[in-house]
Write a structure and sequence with these properties.
about 110 residues; 6-stranded mixed sheet; 3 helices; about 25% helix
Length: about 110
């Protein structure tokens, strides 16, 4: 991952690889939003439900292809997911907005 990317972004991917739900949730602000598959979840309870629901129903690996700073406290990480979900592979951008040392917004989309 690029040195230009905030530490919390790297921690997100490390914790996601271990499927450490509570540690991932702790990375988010109380009112954070996560948008994935066109649906937006707001707040840590909704993010926890996303991690234990839609995210947990498949097994997959994440390979980071690229990462960059987009501006003030905004970062993009390009990843390839490979797993047992429909299609088997997906190339996605994870767009993070950081507030202090926590994630205030995450958008996952092609």
């Amino acid at each position: 991952m690029s040195e230009d990317v905030h530490d919390v972004v790297g921690r997100y991917f490390d914790l996601a690889a271990r499927r450490d739900v509570e540690a991932i949730v702790a990375l988010f602000t109380d009112d954070a939003t996560v948008t994935d598959e066109g649906e937006t979840r707001r707040g840590v309870d909704a993010i926890r439900a996303w991690l234990t629901g839609p995210v947990a129903k498949y097994e997959y690996t994440t390979t980071i292809a690229d990462s960059e700073a987009l501006g003030d406290d905004q970062y993009r990480v390009a990843v390839r997911l490979e797993g047992n979900f429909p299609g088997g592979t997906a190339d996605l951008n994870y767009d993070f907005v950081i507030d202090g040392n926590r994630v205030s917004r995450l958008r996952i989309a092609p």
